[in-house]
Amino acid sequence: MSLDVLGFISTYGVFITLVACIVIFAVLDSRFIEIDNLRTQLGLAAPLLMLSLGLTVVLAMGDFDLSIAGTLSACAAAIVVLIVNHDWPWGLAVLVGVAFGLGIGAINGLLVSYVEMPSFITTLATFLILLGVEYMISDGRNITGAADMPDLYRDLGIGKPEPWTEFTSPVWIAAGLAIILWLLMAKTELGRYMYAIGGNPEAARLSGINVKALRALGFVIVGFAAVIAAVSQTARTASSIPRVGISLLLSAYAAAFLGAAASRKGLFNVPGTVLGVIFLQAVQSGLTILGYDRDILDISRGSILVLAMLLTALGARRR
Amino acid sequence: MTATAPAASSPLLEVSGVTKRYPGVLAVDDVSLSLEAGQIVGLVGKNGAGKSTLIKIIAGAEHADEGHLRLNGESLELHRPHDATDAGLAFVHQDLQDVGDLSVAENVMMGLGYPRKMGLFVDWAELYRRAADPMVRLEADIDPREPVGELSVAKQRLVMIARGLAQQAQLLVLDEPSASLTDEEIEHLFAVVRRLRDDGITVVYVSHRLEEIFELTERVIVMRNGQLVADEPTASLNRSSLISHITGHEHAQTATERRASRRVGGRPDTEVVLDVDGVSADTGVHDCSFDVREGEILGLGGLMGSGRTEMVRAVFGADHRREGSVRVHGQEIRDNHPAESMAAGLALLPEDRKTQGNIMDFSVRNNITLASLDRHRVRPRVPAPLPRSEKQAADRRIGRLSIATPHDRQLVRLLSGGNQQKVVIAKWLEQGSDVLIFDEPTIGVDVDGKEEIYDIMEELAAEGKAVVFISSEFSELVGVCHRVLVLSEGRIIGELEGDEVTEPAIVEICYSQH
Question: Which residues in chain A are contacts of B439 at CB distance < 8 A?
Fold first, then answer.
């Protein structure tokens, strides 16, 4: 009987920790579960969710992408500079950003998949290059320009497309991306092939799967996700903050790994990543409401990550 | 049958009444045996007969539910693997468990600690000197400084044996030690095992290759369904009586009898399906040409390292084909890439099911449909698989190939070796290629499983498929092939057809160039 309890905890470790956190925060301060806070938090979490979702695809195939932080930062700076300083039409600026993100993804994919360079160090290199590019564009300064930004662009960040839930646009965009990538990963042939590559690339290749093209595609997808995260972020704050991507990078990895820990088979997966992002955001929001500072916040997030992994590891050992 | 002769002095290892249950399975059922010092004992049985579990219990990796062990007359309590090592028991597993990046010396001396200089620094010179000792005893020409990962499989196994010697082992268990070794390397391994026996070490030799059991061992222990069913001097057995013990069936066929009873004749007079012309590759394949007809089973014989695997990999496009052409139904495959070959109707069932055949963390179902996923679409133009349709296909294959799995959602990792091999076969049968290349499909598969795999190949041929069959057990080729090509050093050096296909004839061609 006691073993069954342990089994239950290990299978649902991440859920249990999340529910426990929500209950504790709600008991300590009821503001935590108010609808306004929910709206705000989802809006804040949306760019992280977009980035994490893209990352999930790459991780599922057994690769890493660190450059996403650079892509996000550089695109954010470029789009804001083009709109605010150069009076470009916002649509064109976004288009340039998307092309840029896809291009970076393609380069990463080419180097990792076709030239067969290790993904960790390759994307670390492109990450550094992109940080330099971002610095060239922004001069390392905050660029703000709420007044110079067209309302339509701001709507991408703070607009509320429907009057019922009053969730902001990024929430819907992130939800849309989540559904598309969930369908891709869980329901299509391509998704199956991607997991096969993550499981055993050689067996996948000998089964006729185009391993190189799919691995490269993963990097393109995460590049695209980084760009729309940049758009949401800059449209919401009407500014580009230097190195905005770096703070999101570690959270994105944490969310994806939490999601894998939450899945029965320990695989990176889209619903799990969504859960992971919600988890991280809930902890951040709860602790902020309770008046804790950044230091406690980071320590708590790290500890919770360890706890969730620990519960999962216990389960894996039992199996 | 479990004759435990009363000995004057106590035996080296005594196993009495050992029983181990897993949920739903009685893995080891009241097994008693005793091993004397300085013997070579064969341990044989089908996959799932309980050999591995028994070994794990002796190694302290599993706990017996009942029964106990005695070493030199004293009760042996094993709580963790280290206890067995300390007691003088050493194990060399089929999957090598060495640390590839560390040197030979470090692997040999692993678990014994590093010698120190001034109490702090590792005394490398001393470490190499100490490790050289067991290597000399094994007459192994291996540099103790070399990283183990750079060595051949045969030498890596010797390193593992040397580790046992360094730990003063009295009992050495070798699990399928000859897998992927060349004939010459196997000879050396045998010499090593005999020398250890002469030094008073007891060697338990686990193998599915019965020839080796007869050549090497003095005594054979046979397990079936968890029970010890025979424990006899090797000299009192012959191949057919040993197979009857293993399978529990009365009579076992020899390859020649099988060939005769199945009326395996020459190649059928049908159309050529696979036509290979002048294929060469940088992996050591030189100018290979052959063809296979509809309904033909073509065997590829040769010694280990003769280039059979390399040749079929080049034909399939798994490795780059430098020269030559491959045609299926007269259509040339221009791009050499597995996907192109598959589209043309070619399938390769690779040698190593763990690293090349299966996605071990996928379910049986998802492995079976992996190469033919586009046939299970929700709608013809929507590239999304329909689970119901996949399940039907998987269940059909599980039934027809009698894959032992609780359900189609079971992870392939959790199946036995023979069943993992059947999953690979199922995948390619589903894919429906016209030419199927089986590379050593029966390695690590028990006697019954092998027979099933021959049946599968014969059924495929009867359906008009062309089958290419690579095996290092020539008796298998004799049992099923219409025609056999013999390779050496990446070249085809001989061809036998119909009545010419006999074991001696294959062996003679193999050695004609040496």
Answer: none
Burial profile B415-433: b = 16 or more Cβ within 10 angstroms, e = fewer = bbbbbbbbbbbbbbbbbeb
Residue B101 φ/ψ, nearest 5 degrees: -80, -20
Look at strands B13-22 and A239-240 and give their pairing: unpaired
- Shortest CB distance from A203 goes to which of B356, B373, B383? B356
Q: Which two tokens stand for residue B444?
A: 């690590």
The sheet that has B74-76: what strands, in order across it? B25-35, B13-22, B66-71, B74-76
Characterise A66 by phi-psi region: left (phi > 0), alpha (psi -120 to 50), beta (else). alpha
Q: Which residues have CB under 8 Å from B183's CB, separation 6+?
A: B303, B304
Task: Give B216-226 pLDDT, tens digit per residue.
Answer: 999 999 998 88
CA–CA distances in Å: residue B507 to residues B16, B264, B365 = 44, 20, 40
* Confidence at residue B474, expressed as pLDDT on a 0 to 100 scale: 86
Chain A contact set for B381 (CB, 8 A): none
Dihedral sign for Cα B156, B96, B43, B45, please.
negative
How many Cα atoms within 13 Å fall on the side-chain side of residue A289? 23
**Secondary structure class of B401 (helix, strand, coil):** coil
Q: Do B362 and A195 touch (CB under 8 A)?
A: yes
The dihedral over CA atoms of B6, B11, B17, B19, expressed in degrees to the nearest 10, equals -160
Contact B359 A209 (CB under 8 A): no
Of residues A170, A55, A208, the one with CA closest to residue A119: A55
Q: CA quadruple B292, B298, B299, B302: dihedral positive or negative?
A: negative
Percent of chain B exceeding pLDDT 70 equals 95
CA–chain centroid gap for A72, Å, is: 11
Q: Work out the average pLDDT over B233-249.
A: 85
Could you give all domains of chain B from N- to C-terminal order, each with its CATH number? Answer: 13-88+170-252 (3.40.50.300), 254-345+433-514 (3.40.50.300), 358-432 (no CATH)
Model pLDDT for residues B122-180, shown as the tens digit of each residue: 888 888 888 888 888 777 788 888 888 787 777 888 888 888 888 888 899 998 888 76
Please tell me which residue of chain A has the smallest CA distance to B427.
A207
- pTM for the model stands at 0.79
Rounded CA-CA distance A68/A222 in Å is 7
pLDDT of B203 over the 50 cut: yes
| Cα separation, B128 vs B307, whole angstroms | 36
Task: State the pairing for strand pair B74-76/B66-71.
Answer: antiparallel
> Which positions in chain A touch B427 (Cβ < 8 Å)?
207
Q: Which residues pair with B484 in a beta bridge?
A: B299, B496
* Ramachandran region, residue A183 (left: φ > 0; alpha: ψ -120 to 50; beta: rest): alpha
Dihedral (C-alpha) A189, A191, A192, A196: value to the nearest 10 degrees? 130
| Fold exhibited by the domain A35-303 | ABC transporter involved in vitamin B12 uptake, BtuC (1.10.3470)
ipTM of the complex in this document: 0.88
Q: What is the mean pLDDT of chain A?
A: 90
B366 inside 8 A of chain A by CB: yes
Question: Domain ranges in chain A?
Answer: 35-303
> Do A232 and A167 form a contact (C-beta atoms < 8 A)?
no
Give the type of residue at A120. Answer: F
Question: Going by C-beta distance under 8 Å and a sequence separation of 6 or more, which residues neighbour residue A108?
Answer: A65, A67, A119, A122, A123, A126, A219, A223
**How many A×B Cβ pairs under 8 Å?**
65
**Which residues in chain A are closer than 8 Å to B365, comparing Cβ atoms?**
none
Could A200 and B355 be called an inter-chain contact, meaning their C-beta atoms sit closer than 8 Å?
yes
**Segment A232-270, tens digit of pLDDT:** 999 999 888 888 888 899 899 999 988 988 887 788 999
